[in-house]
Design a protein that fits this description.
The protein is α/β, with parallel strands linked by helices. It has 3 domains: about 15-285, P-loop containing nucleotide triphosphate hydrolases (Rossmann fold); about 350-550, Alpha-Beta Complex (Spore Coat Polysaccharide Biosynthesis Protein SpsA, Chain A), CATH 3.90.550; about 560-645, no CATH class. About 45% of the residues lie in helices and about 15% in strands. It has 27 helices and 18 strands. The strands form 3 sheets. Strands 9, 10, 11, 12, 13, 14, 15, 16, 17 and 18 form a 10-stranded mixed β-sheet that branches. Strands 2-3-1-4-5 form a 5-stranded parallel β-sheet, sandwiched between helices. Strands 6-7-8 form a 3-stranded antiparallel β-sheet, with no helix packed on it. The two termini are about 50 Å apart. Bound molecules: zinc ion (ZN). The site of zinc ion has 7 residues, from helix 3.
Length: about 650
Amino acid sequence: MIIPPLEPEHAPTRVLYVAGMGRSGSTLVERAIAQLPGATGVGEVVFLWDRGLRRDERCGCGERFSACSFWQRVGKAGFGGWDQVDPDEMTALAEEVDDLRDIGQLAGPIVTRRFRARQRRYLEHYERLYDAIREVAGCDVVVDTSKLTSLAYSLRRAEHIDLRVLQLVRDPRAVAYSWTKTIRRPEVLDREAYMPTYRPSYMAALWSGHNALLELLPRLGTPTERLRYEDFVDDPLASLRRVAELAGLDVSGDALDFVSDSGLDLGVVHTVSGNPSRFTTGRVSLRRDDAWRAELPASARRVVTALTWPGRRAYGYDATAEHRAEASGHQDPVPSQRPQALPEPTVWPSVGVVLVTHDRPALMRRALASIRSQDYPGRLEVRVVFDRAEPDQTLHTDADDRPVRVGVNTRTPGLCGARNTGVLDLDADLIAFCDDDDTWEPGKLRRQVAALEAEPDAVLATTAMVVDVDGRSVARTCGTDRVRLEQLLRSRLAMLHSSSFLARRNLVTATGLVDESLPRSMAEDWELLLRAATRAPIVHVDEPLVRVQWGVSSHFVHRWVDKNEAHRTLLARYPAMTRDRVAAGLMAGKLAFGHAALGERRAAWRYIARSARANWREPRWVLASAVALRLVSADRVMTELTRRGHGI
Ligand SMILES: [Zn+2]
């Protein structure tokens, strides 16, 4: 079965490709477009090879594919008969060259020779198919509603296709809700078949990812228009005029007479696959379907709202009220297994606290006061370490059980060296950290020491936190009282803040408590958590006992170069991060965002591809895409995340 490619001088077929998420109303939009003079709608062409050729499902006209005279004529005109086409080959080719996991090759400048050759073979089928449809239907424009983002990327490389893309968007909550419903597929005749259902969080991630990638198309030179389904329903005439302009169709005269106030007059179409409503003919009324507002559960709505905010903002699906509700929520990596009540030790160990400060005397005094007023029965000693700043000796006190000593950082300048200076200068059983802009709740040490002492193998204990940001407080708990290495490889678990760290001395003496080699003290607390967790699970008191100040101007936020380098160091040091798909997706996502923030788009896209391939549901590659595409600035993303008590 050798199908020769079209001659180079063969005129390209103009194809209007409708892209976007399924259940975005594309069937109705397509059928409206198909009524435009000069256009022919053929449904979701991507499924023709399997559902039409292999399974012989029903065409939009009601006939089986093999009995539909339109498609039989197309097969003859394009390929000399459908028996000349091997659907298995098309399935194999699609898996190889038409999959978003290969977005690097589909969108990026780096394409292997093999990929190029296989893609050529794949596209020759589409070129012949569209050409035959144009010939049989006698139309100017073929309308394909396959919707797949990957296929849009593939088709733009076809020589004989003049591609125009209509990016159809719909409120992600309506889309997510629709995918939770069970819908029968009437085109399947020999059995009961249903369209698949998906979880709202999954659909939300896809919605963000696909729309972000579709935004890139016009920047790569493909004529693209965005149409909101809601706008189409509200004003179909204006919407169709815009679409006609994109497709190069003339809609003067009575071309749009099938549109009226009460809806659309629809005729028969030969669509190979799509929503069940494609079998409806006659008058179809247009209305917004807002069932999701009543039916989509609040928790699902929060998740969808959170996962789609960059796109929603860009497309005008605002949700200020839901934003606020979402801000009070948090993610639960692991459900809590046991209550926190623990017996208290008979002898309370001594605790040494390292309080590193740079140049914020008022904040530092507040932090110091919260440490010294701890409701803790044992001995408590504080080292205030001034990092690159004049030490304030007036803080010094020899008070019996709560002495305070003042010193300067004698090691590597920066947070890590300053912490180690304090650690090495202390002679306590347990070592705790507090940053100068954070404070401890009065019961912090007592609860935490009791929990750590009950677990002799553990070397590090943490607590949950309250984040103060923008005049609001967000509690960040983690839903567990033990944090294991696997969890930490897969997530930084930002609620385990360094101002809550309480370590046994032996974690200090062996290797040095804090890694000073990480650039500018980036990710050093994550590194310490990982190091501690390789020895034993971290004991976690899941109560917000530490109050953390997050400013939008926090001095670590913008140092993306150092962040990227630190993350690469972590990857090299913990190879398990590249073996685990979720961890690999996370790290690549972090690096993607870091490079996107720096405007290093080539590197950003490389990591976006890597992250998406490792873990499709990793939200960071979506955010990185949005930044790389300049839909939203990195600072804006960080501000939004910070407001919710999250980092990137
Ligand atoms: Zn038909």
